[in-house]
Structures are given as structure tokens and as C-alpha cells.
Amino acid sequence: MVELPMTDREKILAALPDATAEGLPPTEWTGARSHVFADVFLALGGKIGTVSDFSDLVAGRSVWLDDDARQELQSRGIELPSNCDSIWDAAVGVTLAQLLVAETGTIAVAAGPGHWRLASLVPPVHVVLARRDQEVPSLSDAIAALTDRTSVFISGTSRTADIEGVMVRGVHGPGEVWLLWL
Amino acid sequence: MKRPKVEAFARNLSPETTASVRSASVQKTKARKEILWDDLKDVEAARTEAARIKDDVLDRLKPLLLQFETAATALGVQVHWCVDGESARAKILEICRQTEPQGGVVVKAKSMATEEIHLNDYLEEHGFTPVETDLGEFVVQVDHDTPSHIVTPIIHKNRRQIAASFAREDLGPYSEVPEELAMQARLHLRQKFESAKIGISGVNFAIAETGRIVLVENEGNNRLSTTAVETHIAVMGIEKLLARESDLPLFLRLLAGSATGQRLTSYTHFIAGPRRSDEEDGPREVHVILLDNGRTRVLAGKYREILRCIRCGACLNVCPVYRQASGHAYGHVYSGPLGAVLAPALEGIEKLGELAKASSLCGACEEVCPVKIPIPRMLLELRDEATQAGVIKEVIPWKAFAAGATQPAGWRMGLKLLPMAKFAPGGPAKQGWTESRELPEIEGRNFRKWWNSR
Amino acid sequence: MARRVRLMLTCLCDAYFGEVGIATVRVLEAAGCEVVFDANQTCCGQPPFNSGDWPAARQVANHCRQTLFSGEQLPVITPSGSCAAMVREGYPLIFADDSHLPCFEVGEFLVKELGIQSWPPEGHPAKQKELKVAFHRACHGRGIGLKDEQETLLGSIPGVQLLPFEQAEQCCGFGGAFSANHPMISAQVGLEKIRNIQASGAEVIASGDMGCLMHLRGLIQRQNLALRTVHYVELLAEALGQEVAV
What we know:
The complex is a heterotrimer. Chain A has helices at 8-15, 37-43, 54-58, 67-74, 139-145, and strands at residues 47-50, 63-65, 92-96, 99-101, 106-110, 125-130, 135-136, 151-154, 159-160, 168-169, 176-181. Chain A is an alpha/beta fold. The termini of chain A are far apart. In chain A, strand 9 and strand 10 form a beta hairpin. In chain A, the strands form three sheets. Chain A has a five-stranded parallel β-sheet. In chain A, strands 7-4-5-8 form a four-stranded mixed β-sheet. Helix content of chain A is 19%, strand content 23%. The model of chain B has no long low-confidence stretch (mean pLDDT 95). In chain B, the strands form two sheets. Chain B has a six-stranded parallel β-sheet with strand order 1-10-7-4-2-3, sandwiched between helices. Chain B is an alpha/beta fold. The two termini of chain B are 48 Å apart. Chain C is 45% helix and 13% strand. Chain C has helices at residues 11-15, 18-30, 46-51, 54-68, 81-94, 106-113, 149-155, 178-181, 183-200, 210-222, 232-238; strands at residues 3-7, 33-36, 76-78, 103-105, 131-136, 160-162, 204-207, 228-231. In chain C, helix 2 (18-30) packs across helix 11 (232-238) and helix 9 crosses helix 10. The two termini of chain C are 27 Å apart. The chains are: A alpha/beta, B alpha/beta, C alpha/beta. At the A-B interface, helix 1, helix 5, strand 8 and strand 9 of A face helix 2, helix 3, helix 4, strand 1 and helix 8 of B. Strand 8 of chain A pairs antiparallel with strand 9 (267-271) of chain B.
């Protein structure tokens, strides 16, 4: 009988000792200090306004809006251009926030129907519409609430310090992030 | 006498490069301390808990990897197990060819695991063009260089050197202004992101419970490389696992804090599989390569704690040897204190055991490690192992020393002869010492004489 | 009632730093201890251990255990954090038996065991001397959990000013055999420390480890700098005022 050689999977599993994944003790961590979301977000280079600032922000610029962001603005009677032909040509990407995290000044944006992952990434300006009741105190809260879908936790603008430690914003992702309160 | 590799490299390093490495390391060490002590309620407790969690994962790696495989597969991820670099490269190529049978551009996010298996050269030899998109890695690539730090790849370069490289590659008009250089890279790489069908990344954390993988970055190139493509391939060492989503906050804070002095990096990306039928964009295929490449062997041995490592680079930043010699001195993608243990552990003592000597055993690495890896203890054990294997040859005759130190009368006699030492012929130890130091001299009284005269 | 303690001299002290041993005895006696000195002692075994010759290290360490840690069980005090670290942290690695031997660095013993928080201890007149000191905290203190015991004692001496300096927590670059097998790196790390200390305005570098002192002193002498290097226990002894006739 010809014996088949072990697959890589079999080799790796054979090299690992047997154990159980049951009975892991809960993670105990005193955590991090809480902050005020707006303070941390501003310190990260974010900008804050209200939904009434929206029209000025996008005036004369090509935009790409997620569907629910569009609906939210339309419901307030705000005039909106249609999305430009390609998201790669948009100057401003507009999304809703799913959650805001006070501990780290983070905006959580999740994938889903009518949401483009690239909307918060490709255009050089990202505008986020959020309600104050979307704020949660800790990173733990936010992660637990959004386990279901692919998501990104955005903590400030795109940045790098690769060249001599000098900080540069907007390397690949947006260099400008606006939070507009609804 | 052949010098140890790290020393030989350091001797040839330009003062300019040492200055660059040193100032970046000092700044990052300071930033780490500030953010962790400002924000975490109990830094020591956090480190202890993180070390315990990682040890738990390592103890249960088999069932947790299987759990991850099941959960990730349910999300639509294709999980591949690769026993070594050769197997991983072949599997990655196979996946690339499924998407682009004729070859093509592959956008790459920074991944030490892909450097470990020398993926880029292999892809190039087989009709693909890997393009590094992290700014530092991009510079490394155009210079045909290698990264000198696992988090900040070009701390050994200054703006003049980068400007020269960019001008040479025709990326734009010559400029030494960091903002302008970064924008030249952005424009150049944008086209690649838009057109590439394949993106390759590493993995910072994989969650067994849900099958999600987590990637952290500041630039946005990682998100672009894994989102604006059709096929995303994520390469991870099998030890990069966490059991539960609830373990993430502690590790995300420790990683960002220890690596770059941030609360969180600009983007923390949670990937729950490929694009779903009700989603607008995202890759249609997500593949995770579970890479062993020696890790199961390390797990079974004396150096298993090194597998707790979350690749923050804090140990590199604080190490006096790293600061003087730079990462390239170690001749391996993993350098500094991490590399001095992991490199010989993965590749064998015969090849890299001498790296264990490139340390003054100061212990600063263990002090800053977010998962409390006992690097000095492991360096000592490596030295023992390497000495017994004949890989390390000592400059000082310890057998003779031990003979003298176990015979009190002989010892006391030897001490009387010490002043003659400066006339003794120079062996390698004496030569090493006197290169830049005066020999020690007896200053003041002799203790034993003083004691006996009381 | 005087507390009996054994002195572990250390090989470096035996060889080059006799004054440190003398100062240690005077300091311990001023703190109310009776010091026992076993003439057969040699070395704790740290040099071969750090280099990876563990068989040689075991030989030397066994001799040390027999000489200092057998017979009457007394706390063993040493003017070297690295030797204390060798006995407490290194011996369990090279010996299968679970020995936890009572070996203490002198400042650690004074502060933690005897509860002395300032120097000179009560009842001793202090000899004041204005001195600007940079304290180099030796790395092996990390291994035995030394925090600021040495600085506490040193800084409390009337007239002593402990000056902060840049990158104070960095290694001096000695590292034992490292100083000989990576000589350029070792020297550069030490010279950086010396430059930082010079910039602080200190006249004296004090440390608790004779390896560090030997290395820094060697660099300072080669560079012809006007910086004094001293073991901190010598400054503690100087503050006691009396000189012992030889």
C-alpha cells in the first residue's frame, strides 16, 4: 500500500502537543484611563464640526457617500451631488460612524450594505457623521459590539514618521478627518 | 582573530548612521514610557497579564489553531498550513496564479513574516512584481536594501539619502522635505493600489474564537493592500494567535504604546472574511497562511517564551548594542534582542548562535517587553548551548580561571601576580580591552592585608 | 546585639578594589553588624557563567557555596549587585537543586533588611563634604529588584548632590567578556555615558558595580578626563569620618 506523505497541516499538528482550549481564565486587566472623545480626537489631528458645516466642506468637490450617510443628509434637506464615477477620483469620502471610542479618540466604521470600505480610505478627506449617543467609554466596549463584520477603527489621520521621525499626514489614507455631529 | 559579526559591522558603520539610529531609538523609548505610564492604570499588571495570556495560548496552540481554522473558514477565509518557508512561498505563488495566471503586480503591506521567508525575490523570479507600499519598506525596496528595524524600517537612513534614492528612481523633483518625499511616494503607489489584484500582508493578531484577523498600521497602505484588491493573502506565524476577542484591547494598547508611543495606531483593521454578498467592496478572496518555519520546534524547547513576542520593537529601541550597531549588524530580519534569541532559535545555533554574545546582558529589553520575555536568561542559555556546540569560542580561558578559583592558596598567589598582567603578552581579551581603555590598576590598600592586621 | 553577616568580597574587589572591601566592612559595622570574613573565598562564578562556560561556572560556584553558604547560615553581603544576582538568579539556572541562598547587595541589605533610610545612621556624626555626584545604576540590579536603595543612601549624605543626567538608565557597556569580544561597541556605549555625565556637571561617577567602574575608569584614563570614579560604598564610608590606621 502506498503511504501518502503527511500534508503540511498534518505535520504541524503532529508537532504540537495535545491540549484543551477549554477552561481559559477570563482576561483580567485594570484597563486604561478614560478620556473625553473629542479631546483625544482633536489631539490626533481630527477636526470637529456639526452637520450644518457639511455643505461648505464639500462645496465644489467630488464626493463619494455611503448610502446611509446620503440618506441621513437628505433627510435633513441637505443638497447632495451624486457620487463621482470612481471612488479613486473623489476628494471627499463620507460615512456614518458606527461607534466612537472615548478611551482612544477612535471612530469605528464597519462594512455592510451600502458601505464602501474605501470611502474612509481613498479620498484625501474623510467626513464622518456621528451622534453623541454613539460614544462608548472603552476599546473593550467597541470591540465587543462590532465583532460581526469587517471594520476599521480609525484613530486620527493617516500618518508616517518613517523619514527621520518627522510626522507627515495623509501618506496613503486621508490626511484630513472631519467628525460632524448630527 | 575573527571579530563577532555584530562588532565587525558596527566598526564599519558611519557615524551619520549611528546618529540616526540612536536618536530614533531614544525618541521611541521616551514615547513608549510616556504613553504607557500616562494611560494604563497599572503598567506592570498589564504586562504580567499579557505574558500570562500569551503563555496560555502557547500551551494550547493546537486546539486554538484548529478553532481558528474552523471559525475563519466559516467566515469564508481559506486557511493554509505551511510547514516552512519553501512551502509557504509555493502556496502563495499558487494563490497568486489563480488570480493572475500571467503574473502581475502584487501590493505588499509590511510583514516581517514575508521577509523571513524571502517572499519578494521568489515572486519576482516567478513572474510577479511585489511592490512594497509602506513608505519605509518602499524606500528599502528601491534601494535594494533590507529593513533595519521591525517596526520603523529606515531609521538608518536620513532625508538626504532618501531624496537621492527618489530622484534616482524618477519619482519627482529632488527634495529633502519629508512631506514632499512622502507625497511623491503616495502618488507613485496610488496607481499600484488602484490596479493591483493581489495584496499580501502580515497579521498582528488572529482570534481563534471568531476567525477574525487584526492588522494595525498608521499609513493606510495596509488597508489599501488588503481591501482594494481581489485577493488578499495574509501571512502569519502560528504564534500570533489570541484565544478571544476580549483579549484584544490589552494587546492593542500594549502594541501601539510599546511600538510607537500611541494609544492606538491610526488604523486598527478587523477582517471578518472576504467581501460578503451584501457588501459593496473588499477582496473576494481572503487567504491566511499559517506559517510554522521552526516555531513548533522553538515551542518545544528552552526558548519558547520568545514566541510571546508581538513584534513591538521596544527591545530594539532600548538596547545599547542595537543603538550602536543598527539592525543590519545582526544579518537577519529579526535583529536586536529579539533577533539575538529568535534568529538562532529558528535557524539553528550553528548558523546564528554567536548573536547571543552581542549583548552586555543589561536587561533593559526584558524591562520594556510588553509580554515580559526573559531575554537575558535566554541569551545566557544560548551561550551555554553554543559553547557546548563549539559555535562560540571564548577569548578568556575559563577552565584555567575555574582551576584557580577553586584553590584558595593558588588564588591568593595569583592575585599577588596581578600587577604583572600589564607586561603579559596581549591575547585577544587584553587587545580588546586596551583598544580604548587603560588596564585596571590596584588603587589603595589590599583588603586581605588590612583585614589580617585588625 | 550585633547582627552577624558574612562578607563576599568579590573577585574584582580582591584583585583591584581593596578599598571597596574595606569601606564595606566599615559601613556594615557602623550599621551595627559583626562582619565575618572567610579567607578561602574566591569568586561567585559569574564571569564564566555569563560567557556560557557553565561547567567552569559550576566549579567556581560550588566552591563559593561551600565557602560562604555552608556551616553557620549567615546572610552574605557583597558590594556587588551582579554577584548577588549571580547567586540568587544564576545559581538556580546552573544547579538542579532549588537553592535560594541569602545573598544581598550591601545597600539593599542596609535599606531593606536593617531599615536604614539615611546615611550616616543615627548616632554617627556625619563628615560633610560638598560633592556633585552622578550615580550610575548598574544593570544587574534589575535582576535582584534593586530600585533606588543605593541612591537613597548616597543622596542622604550631607553635602552630596546627586545630579540627574541624560539616558541615565542605559548600560555602561561593560557586560563582562562583552567588553573584550565587542570592544568597539562596549567603548562607544561607555563613552556616551561619560559624555552624558560630564554634561550634568558631576565631578564624581559613583556606582555599585566594580565591573562598571573598571570599564568607565579605563575609558576616562585613556581620554585623560578629570572625572573621579568611586564605588558608592566608599562615599558612605568617607561620610563616617574616621580613618582606619593601617
